[in-house]
Amino acid sequence: MKTQILTTCGYRIAMLVSLLIGYPTYAVSNDNHLFFNASYLLQYKQQKGIIKISGTVKDAQGVLGGVIVSVGNKTVATDLDGKYTIDVSIGDRITFSMLGYKERSMVYSSSMGPVLNIELLEDNTTLDEIVVNAGYYTVKDRERTGSIARVTAKDIEFQPVLNPLQAIQGRMAGVSITQNTGVAGGGFDIQIRGRNSLRNYQNSALNGNTPLYVIDGVVIPTSNLPNSTLSTTILPMSETNILNAINPTDIESIEILKDADATAIYGSRGANGVVLITTKKNKSEQLSFTLSSSTSFSKVANKMKLLNTKQFNKMRDEAFKNDKITTYPANAYDMNGTWDRNRYTDWQKELIGGTALSQNIQLGINGGSETTHFSGSVSQATQTTVFPTDKGFKRNAFLINVNHKSKDSRFQLNSSTNYALQSNNLIAEDLTTKALTLSPNAPSLYNSNGSLNWSFAGDTNPISSMFETYENDNSNLVLNIDLNYELFKNTFLKLNAGYNRTNTQEKRLTPHTIYNPKRNYTSEESTAENTFRDEKSYIVEPQINYSFSKDKLTVNTLVGMTYQQSNTSALHLVGYGFQTNDFISNIGAAKAKGIAQSSNLEYKYVAVFGRLNLNYNSKYLLNLTARRDGSSRFGNNNKFGNFGAIGVAWVFSKEQLINDSSWLSFGKLRASYGTSGNDNIGDYQYLDTYELNINKYDDLTGLSPSRLYNSNFSWEKTKKLETALEVALFNDRLQFELAWYRNTSSNQLVGIPLPGTTGFPFIQDNLKATIENKGWEFSLNAENIKTKNFTWRTNFNISFPKNTLLSFPNLESSTYANQFIIGKSTSVNRLYNFEGIDPLTGYYTFTDYNNDGKITAADDRQNIKERKLDYHGGIQNTLIYKNISLDFLFQFVKQTNYNYNYNLIIPGSIVNQPVEVLNSWSPTNPNSQYGAFTTGVNSTIMNQLNTYKNSNMVIGDASYIRLKNISLSYVLKLPKIESLKIYVQGQNLWTITNYYGLDPEFTAYGYLPPLKTYAFGVQLTF
Length: 1022
Fold this sequence. Notes:
Layout: H1 12-22, H2 38-48, E1 50-59, E2 62-63, E3 68-71, E4 74-77, E5 83-89, E6 93-97, E7 104-107, E8 118-119, E9 131-133, E10 138-140, E11 148-152, H3 164-167, E12 175-179, E13 188-192, E14 212-215, E15 218-220, E16 251-257, H4 260-263, E17 274-279, E18 288-300, H5 309-322, H6 347-352, E19 356-368, E20 372-384, E21 392-405, E22 411-427, H7 432-437, E23 469-488, E24 491-510, E25 527-550, E26 553-576, E27 592-616, E28 620-631, E29 640-650, E30 664-678, E31 689-697, E32 700-707, E33 716-729, E34 734-746, E35 748-753, E36 762-767, E37 770-786, E38 790-807, E39 828-831, E40 834-837, E41 844-846, H8 857-860, E42 863-866, E43 869-881, E44 884-898, H9 939-948, E45 955-957, E46 960-974, E47 977-993, E48 1011-1021
Parallel strand pairs: 1-8, 14-17
Antiparallel strand pairs: 1-2, 1-5, 3-4, 3-6, 6-7, 9-10, 11-16, 12-13, 14-15, 16-17, 18-19, 18-48, 19-20, 20-21, 21-22, 22-23, 23-24, 24-25, 25-26, 26-27, 27-28, 28-29, 29-30, 30-33, 31-32, 33-34, 34-37, 35-36, 37-38, 38-43, 39-42, 40-41, 43-44, 44-45, 44-46, 46-47, 47-48
């Protein structure tokens, strides 16, 4: 039976590399039987007529590694020298197969002898056999009617990252991924063809644009509780990511479903796209072990150019001169002699200039029998931070996959167990802002006796906050079992069941020692906060699949149902006042204790779904999907919603007129249209709810109404339209795909503002606003050079997304008037228009649009600036010479975003500034970029600075080109060892940008940016 190996490249050398990375290759020797006496085994084989044969497999250019050799259910693969050994009996059929080559199969006879050498012929048509995961079904890549982006293990597993989303940045058209922070364990912003919902962290406790994650068939429901606020000052939006719990090395592939044809079968949860994670499965019965180890070193990639001591002193002198201050106040430490004015400290180096050390080690095992295969791995990953502390992130991950097939192949069982323990022990506050604003002549952090120096501005110490800690302990379990039974010919019963449990405990400990001892605080002022969150979810999905073929028509049908239930409990405790800080980690020891939150939430979801696929001669394709969903998050009037899609494709390269073309290998036109939805709004939003009133009457606790009843609000709905062209030329050496899409999202689930007389700020309802996301996507794969010893491949993708708010009834009279503008993107700002600096006064000037002589928010915020993504993509090159491989990826982004002016602090005050601030007004520099320096007492300039920070000057170009990843690897051939891979990697090594700020990749300003990383490692397979 032909063995399919899933990969994005169908040629021999590429296959060899992917096997080295993703699948251990096996060279079976005579002494590898670990559990049997050799003489007994030989006698047994002789009685059964079993013969051990060996040989070499090659093609016209040389030996072939990674060829699958199978006899019945027994499977081995050739080693790097093309050699194999396998047991056969006379009359057995032996098959040799490899992607990109024509399969050879023969019945073994005694005349063939114990040595069987085989030559395979190239066959590019096997690229038609590449299969992609579409969630509830798999489909040949060239027969899909939907838009599915895919990245495989060879591009993921050796990258020096903790989260696989970091590894796929810049590799997929239509998928934009932004890392929130350079602190390990943080979250990511992932946009699959734009933002469909008005709800984001700026206006909602829940992000309505989060995609759906499916891990080994288990749907991970979106959280129905807002993020805890304990980590807000160290992790942007207090956000983490579910994929932090998965070891990237364990991943076989990541598929992202984008259009209606691909996502509609997920119904109400597919509007923002679907991320499918498939972990590695073993396909051979041979026992093998893999040991991997890597070490990486990470630093902040770039420094901002800030004022040195000489420049800073000049700025301060001018500020006091401009303010006509000759007697220096007590808080002017750098001017009144408290500090050494000539001292210099590079605070970026001191506070965020450390090296984050990351270490990863993994042990894997693969084995099995004729009918059962298993794989397992255990790994540990640790990473510190660049802050001056040894705290950091730690993850222990365990993965077990078991696959069983009955001898008659009618019954199949696949199970997966993924368990991870994460511990993130951090300082409670990100030091990045302090590193950029501390005066360069500020004193040392420590006194000569080693104690903290409290003579900084405000009688503080910049690292005293490091005594305040944040801890996050998390356990995550994902269980899946998939049963498949062929009831009748071509009729299959399937049951997919899964269980997910995430348990999180957070602690934020704030001892009194973070404050200046002058305050005479004791442990009575120490505080502790603990949160406990337990999320449990199970899913059951019975399905029936029937397929038949008649002449050239193949019909495939699928009918199934889903039942999922999620239960979440949360508790937030606060303790204040401790006898000693030794007890601070035990909140029970606090003298005053309180419960800030106690929640128990339940979410139920039920659905029926179906699929009908018609395939006529692999030329004309029709795919119909439909789903009816029910969600407990909606009232009885709209508890159920209907979703569906149609996808069509025409493989025009199979038409007789061009079928024999020497240059066209493959050509397909496809289109799709359909709907998907979004119920990510939290639980009980339609009910009238009450909350405890903290004010007691006669020692009785009362209730206050917190939400109005509305059973009429319903699902957000997204209509998706796409057309695409796929072409392969010159025997598949050049392949490209061009797609156009248009998604419109309506029925926006937001809070409708209410008059204050109602006693409620808003009521949850569907807003008749419509968002449009449309754009073009282009991807190209080219095999530039292919010889016996050398291969050069190039992958390129680029996307041009456009996000627009098409309609919003009564926007101008709503509270959203300053947040959204019809005809612009949903990330837009109404700003003052900065005209320049008055050369006579040094004052900031702005456009007075209504000419009333005043600059007011109501009339003069007329400059419209969008924070938008114009285009993004990546270009990857892979060069392979014999056993050496070089791979590098450049990521590019064209965008606008907030710059340093957004958080500009008074130029002239006792905080450091970018060197650009030197272009400030003075009588000798009247045509300047910034106004006159002030210490903060000039009220006119202070008011103007506030206006300036809400002007068009705070948004600018944030585009960049980044060497996202580079990898150099070498595979050694050693006796009795299948392979030894040695590699070095780099991440975020080089960035070209004109961005005014620390780094152009961010989601919230003022946090640590993504880090530059150097890594080296080895992988041993034996």
